[in-house]
Amino acid sequence: MDATDVRLNTYKTEINSLKHQQQLLQKDSEYSQSITDLYKSQTTATQTIIDQNKSLTELVEGLQTTITSYNTTLTSFTTLCAPIINNSVTTSPITSQMPTRSSQTHVVRKPKIQSSKNVVIGDSSTPDLIPKHLCTTQHQVQVKTSSGSNINRLHEQLHNGDFDQLLSSPPTATFIMGTINLSTESPLQTIEHTKSFISSFNKLHPNVKLFIPHVPYRSYSGLQRDIETTVNEYNQLLDQEAASGNFVTYDLNITDDSFLLKGDN
Predict the structure, then answer these.
(1) What span, in angstroms and rounded, lies between the C-alpha atoms of 151 and 191?
(2) What are phi and psi for residue 173, nearest 5 degrees?
(3) 32 vs 102: CA distance, rounded Å
C-alpha cells in the first residue's frame, strides 16, 4: 500500500468520525428540544392551574361577600322588627350651642355600658313618626329634629359634638336625611356626602349601630321640581353602599301626616 492509499484511508476514517460526531450532536439537539418542549408544557400546565385557582379564589370571595350581605340584612330585620316593650317618644329641637372644634380630628366617644334609648334624628318632619311603627328592642325612642338641615349640616354637627350627649348611651341611631340635598344636587353627589357622614359616624361612635332609611317620596312648596326619579336613583345607590355592612337601610314611606315603615299595618 503506497502513501496515497494511506492518506485516503486516513481521510475516510476522519470523515466517518466527523459523521459520527454530527449524528451525536444532532441527537443532543433533539434531546435538548424535547427538554425545552417539556418545560414549556409544564409551564403552560402550571399557569392553567394558577388561573383556575385564581377563579376559585374570586368565586369564594364572592360567596363570602354574599353571605355577609345576607347576614347584615337578617340582623337589620331582627333589630327593626322586634316587639315593642314600651315606647316613650319625646321631641325637641336640636340647638347648636357647643363651641365649634378647630379641626375635624376623629375622637371616639365612649358610650355607657347600659343603654335605654334609641335615637332618631332628622328634619322637621321627623316627629311625625308613629311610635308603634318604629320597632325597637329597647324601652324608649328619643326623636330630635334639626329643621332644614341637609347631610352636610348634620355632618358638621356630628363633628362639632352636637350629638355627643344624645349618642352617649343608645344602641342605635337613625338619621333621616337626603331630601334637601336631592332638591339641589345629583344622586351621585348626595351619596358621596352620605358616605362621608357614615365614615365619620362609625369612627366617632363605633358602638352605636347606624340606620339610614331610604329617602321617602314627598313634595312641598320649597321644592321646585319633581324629585321622584332622583330619589329612586339615590335609594338604589344607598342599597349598594349598605352592602358594606357599615350601616343599615330600609324603606320608609311618608303619608300626609306620618312616616310609615313599608309593609306595616
Answers:
(1) 10
(2) -140, 130
(3) 74
Nearest residue to 85 (alpha-carbon basis) of 137, 129, 143: 137
Parallel, antiparallel, or unpaired: how do β-strands 209-211 and 89-93 relate?
A: unpaired
Give Cα 136 distance to the centre of its chain. Answer: 25
Q: Are strands 259-261 and 252-254 parallel, antiparallel or unpaired?
A: antiparallel
Angle at 259 between CA 153 and CA 250, to 5 degrees: 75
C-beta of residue 170 within 8 angstroms of C-beta of residue 115: yes
Cross-strand bridge partners of residue 110: none
Segments of the chain scoring below 70 in pLDDT: 1, 7, 11, 69-117, 123-140, 217-226, 253-265
* Helical residues (DSSP H) of the chain, grouped into ranges: 3-80, 151-160, 179-182, 187-204, 228-242
Query: Angle between the 187-204 and 228-242 helix axes, to the nearest 10 degrees?
Result: 40
Long-range Cβ contacts of 237-241 (<8 Å, 24+ apart)? 237/187, 237/188, 237/191, 238/191, 238/194, 238/212, 238/214, 241/191, 241/194, 241/195, 241/198
The three cell numbers of residue 262 are 313599608
In the block, residue with C-alpha cell 466517518: 16
What residue type is 112 in one-letter code? Answer: K
Residue pair 126/74 in contact (Cβ under 8 Å)? The answer is: no
pTM of this prediction exceeds 0.70: no
Q: What backbone torsions phi and psi does residue 61 show, to the nearest 5 degrees?
A: -60, -40
Tally Cβ neighbours within 10 Å of residue 49.
10
